[in-house]
Design a protein that fits this description.
By secondary structure, this protein is α/β, with parallel strands linked by helices. It folds into 2 domains: about 15-65; about 90-270, Nucleotidyltransferase, domain 5, CATH 3.30.420. Helices cover about 40% and strands about 15% of the residues. The chain has 11 helices and 5 strands, in the order H-H-H-H-E-E-E-H-E-H-H-E-H-H-H-H. The chain has helices at about 5-10, 20-35, 40-50, 55-65, 140-155, 170-175, 175-185, 200-210, 220-235, 250-260, 265-270; strands at about 105-115, 115-125, 130-135, 165, 185-190. The protein has a 5-stranded mixed β-sheet, sandwiched between helices. Helix 3 crosses helix 4. The longest helix is centred in the first third of the chain and has 16 residues, at about 20-35. The radius of gyration is 23 Å and the shape is globular.
């Protein structure tokens, strides 16, 4: 033997190792693709790539590389609840969501373009968080919300008794929108006045959309928005982005796993039929 102390045999040089450089590069690539990711989602993303790493190390790297900063943007109100249309009670807190097509949640947000705004209406399946219907428009009216609802209905063929939950804005409370919901036998639910937490999942989707897509692109025209947003919603959000509430899986993958094990049921129907 070389008569070296045991400590010398196990000694590792301090400082960043080559493998760490590759890890840092991969973390930066993940953050570039998903700017809204925190260290826990980054850690799970790495685990899905068979890269074993502790979340504490990921957090340290992200802090050192300044990858944890979040930008704040001005809030634009899109909900007009001062109207004479009927307001429906909040039924969402009375329903246990255990399968697909039990509860759909709807919301609207704005998107800035040169010297103007355009608007996005979206509908999510609450169980899988998947965006199942959406529409982009220059006008903040009922018709584009109806287009998002029509898209969702065509893609999901909902059974009787699906709950549709939204805020109490005039677009969702309007005669035409309510009539369409009733024609497909939806159960109508609306958030309480001034309480965004009643529609937290939809609000979370809009925050993700803004952070990971809208705020990264300088949209100039409606055509720019119409080109980029469908790609983000369908190819990135639904198919790739990990959700902590889905055991860190994308919505499409989560739905496929669920459907391979059992068929959806609708316990909400018995409560509100």
């Amino acid at each position: 033997m070389l008569n070296l102390p045991r400590s010398s045999y196990y000694y590792k040089r301090k400082g960043t190792q080559p493998d760490d450089q590759e890890l840092i590069k991969r973390i930066e690539e993940i953050i570039e693709a998903f700017p809204g990711y925190g260290y826990r989602r980054v850690t799970h993303h790495l685990h899905r790539e068979n890269i074993p790493i502790n979340h504490k190390k990921v957090l340290r790297i992200m802090r050192e590389r300044n990858l944890t900063r979040k930008k704040k943007h001005r809030f634009i109100r899109t909900t007009d609840s001062k109207h004479s249309c009927k307001i429906y009670p909040n039924l969402l807190n009375k329903c246990s969501v255990t399968a697909l097509n039990q509860v759909w949640v709807a919301d609207i947000t704005y998107i800035r373009i040169t010297a103007a705004f355009v608007y996005l209406a979206v509908i999510l399946d609450l169980f899988s968080r998947k965006a199942i219907g959406y529409c982009i428009s220059r006008n903040l009216d009922t018709s584009f919300c109806l287009s998002a609802l029509t898209m969702a209905i065509k893609s999901r063929h909902p059974p009787k008794g699906v709950m549709h939950h939204s805020d109490r804005g005039v677009q969702y409370a309007s005669h035409d929108y309510v009539a369409m919901l009733q024609s497909y036998q939806f159960v109508i639910s609306m958030s309480r006045k001034g309480n965004p937490f009643d529609n937290a999942t939809a609000e979370s989707f809009m925050k993700t959309l803004k952070t990971e897509e809208v705020h990264l692109w300088e949209y100039r025209t409606l055509a720019d928005v119409q080109k980029r947003l469908p790609y983000f919603i369908e190819q990135v959000y639904n198919q790739k982005r990990l959700h902590s509430s889905l055991d860190y899986r994308p919505p499409d993958e989560f739905e496929q796993m669920f459907l391979s094990n059992k068929q959806p049921q609708n316990p909400c129907l018995a409560s509100f039929d």
